[in-house]
Write a structure and sequence with these properties.
Structural class: alpha/beta
Number of helices: 8
Strand order of the largest sheet: 2-3-1-4-5
Distance between the termini: 24 Å
Oligomer: single chain
């Protein structure tokens, strides 16, 4: 069972994986509001905000192998992120991580399998945050954040389609939520219910075995 950290033992980890605009950040905030102890968000937005502009989008590098010059940095940033997550947990802090893992770079980087190895023994819960393409595009078209929007005839940009194809491969999760039919609050409640149901997470162990 995953238990919230109380300062005397290892903390908990919840990883929210999904495409941009799927609703991961909103779920993370909803979890922070409900969590009984301090829940630290160490997601991709925090890391990218700390990355110099010349090296962005850093860990947000989208599928397609568009910037092979950044890929070594992306791999190192992911390694550093999950080492930091593990360090927080070993100090009894709980962590939520909102990310968009994929392996459709110019060469495979194996960031998710590597994360699974770095978090071994910490009982991390891996949550797939799904959202249909049409809802993703409606959120993008609503503006804000510099996200790619629909073309003049309603065309979906190919990079957005690549995110939808790649972000949930291999699709091994402990829990999945769909933000087109669930609010962030409902998704957060589902995560908390799962954590309280005494079902040990297995997704990262399966990813380690597969790697």
């Amino acid at each position: 069972m995953v238990t919230q950290g109380d300062g005397t033992g290892a903390g908990s980890v919840v990883i929210l994986n999904g495409a941009p605009r799927a609703g991961k950040s909103s779920i993370a905030r909803a979890l922070q509001e409900r969590w009984p102890t301090p829940l630290v968000n160490l997601g991709v937005d925090l890391t990218n905000g700390a990355t110099p502009a010349a090296y962005r989008p850093g860990m947000g590098l989208r599928p397609g192998g568009e910037r092979p010059d950044l890929e070594d940095l992306v791999a190192r940033l992911y390694r550093a992120l999950y080492d930091s997550v593990a360090a927080h947990c070993r100090h009894g802090l709980d962590v939520v991580v909102d990310v968009g893992h994929h392996d459709a770079y110019a060469r495979p980087l194996g960031t998710l399998a590597d994360a699974a190895r770095r978090l071994e023994g910490l009982g991390a819960l891996l949550v797939g945050v799904r959202c249909p393409l049409e809802v993703i595009m409606a959120r993008r078209d609503a503006g804000g954040g510099g996200y790619a929007r629909s073309g003049p005839g309603g065309e979906v940009p190919e990079p957005v389609r690549r995110w939808q194809r790649e972000v949930h491969r291999p699709g091994i999760y402990d829990l999945e939520v769909d933000t087109s039919v669930m609010t962030p609050d409902e998704c957060a409640e589902r995560v908390l219910e799962h954590l309280g149901a005494d079902r040990p997470p297995t997704a990262l162990a399966r990813l380690r075995a597969g790697a």
